[in-house]
Amino acid sequence: MRAEVLSIGNEVLSGRTLDTNFQFLARLLEEAGARVVGHQAVPDEEGAIAEALRLAFARADLVLTTGGLGPTPDDLTVEAVSAALDLATMFDAPTLAAVEARWARLMRGPMPDRNRRQALVPAGATVWPNPVGSAPGVLIAHGGKHVALFPGVPEEMRALAVQFLAPWVRAASGRTVEYALVRTVGIAESVLEERLAGLSAALGGAWVAYLPGQGGVDVRVTLPEDVAPEERARLAARARDYVCERAGDHVFATEDRTLEEVVGALLTAQSAHVAVAESCTGGLLGGRITATPGSSVYFEGGVECYSNASKVALCGVRPETLEAHGAVSEETARELAEGIRARFGVGYGVGVTGIAGPDGGTPEKPVGTVHVAATGPQGTYHRAMRLFGNRAQVRERSVTAALELLRRLLKGLPPTTPGAMFTPPAAPPAPRP
């Protein structure tokens, strides 16, 4: 099955909205057994939507749209797709009842008539009820092909795609796609690829993908479909062993687990607690940690200490340290970690300080300069970094670096591994975790 995604919305084309929907759908479709062959960004114009649909039908069996299902006049997807396919539109009674009930529950007042538009669907379509929002998902059969319409709100689109689209694609494609996944952090993608140069050949030509994100790189191996399940399992184990042997202590998981979940499991295993002191990340580190269910078992709390005064008063940083070395320094990061650990009375503390930009940098400390520290019974680890990207990227990568430093401290690994950014290791790497 070939699929194409149409991202509909002026806000996507203007750059005001980052199109994360396509990334999510592309991965979900591939895992469900469909091959993505195209992606278009389309304005909120009926003619443009019709033309994009025509182009997509020329190369895909399944076309998915995101956006344009809201209640305002510029939400034209249902009308545009219906007109292009010569279909009438109608109000779906169950959807309309759900929209009205949701409005009454959340707004406690009369619903504007324009909100009825969210229950408008092409005649004859299959309607997928929205579990977290108003506008439903819609599946249309047309000339042996299909069109699926989804809201542009990421949370709503994802809920609908997971609950309805993925099972439908698996059934329609008749394929069983399985992967071996290994997750790494703290190693450059190009270095990792160099170390794993023989992986595909060792697995009989299996497809190997490198998927960077949030400061880490996932290695995903597509396992062959035309072999027995036992052979697929053997190849998956071989793939994981191969990556773990060559990526060494940069591997933090051999399944779909996040870095913060791994850190949480290590803390739980040690019956330990952690507290964090955040300057440039402003609460993102605590947010990543507490995004994991059950994190109250090991996360004690944190402080957002942007100003020098708060670093001193709340985290125990010495004024003379700030005077001598500045807020963005190894010394300050260490004192943040050690001070927050003492203040909360926990086993581990983490400190983050840096210059996220876009301004505030100097020739000595340019934008992207970040220091992270983690401390515990074993001692204090520190890492200095020069991160690239915009403000949001610098902050997210700082969080990942802090979590990775804490992971290393908890596992008794060195703070960094020589050659992680530039050259392959000369000696055999560490065994798999």
Would you write up a description of this structure?
It contains 15 helices and 17 strands. It is of the alpha/beta class and 433 residues long. The chain has three domains: 172 residues, MoaB/Mog-like domain (Molybdenum Cofactor Biosythetic Enzyme, Chain A, 3-Layer(aba) Sandwich); 75 residues, Alpha-Beta Plaits; 151 residues, CinA-like (Maf protein), CATH 3.90.950.20. Helix 2 packs parallel to helix 6 and helix 10 runs parallel beside helix 15. The longest helix has 21 residues. It starts with a strand and ends in a 22-residue tail after the last helix.
What tags apply to this protein structure?
433 residues; 15 helices; 5-stranded mixed sheet; single chain; Molybdenum Cofactor Biosythetic Enzyme, Chain A; 6-stranded mixed sheet; Alpha-Beta Plaits; Maf protein; 3 domains; alpha/beta; 17 strands; disordered C terminus
* Number of helical elements: 15
- pLDDT under 50 segments (min length 5)? 422-433
Give me the CATH superfamily of the largest domain. Answer: MoaB/Mog-like domain
CATH first level of the largest domain: which class?
Answer: Alpha Beta
Which overall shape is indicated by the principal axes computed on the Cα atoms? globular
Helix % is 25-40%
Calculate the mean pLDDT score and round it.
93
- What's the N-to-C terminus distance? 37 Å
**Which percent band covers the strand fraction?**
15-25%
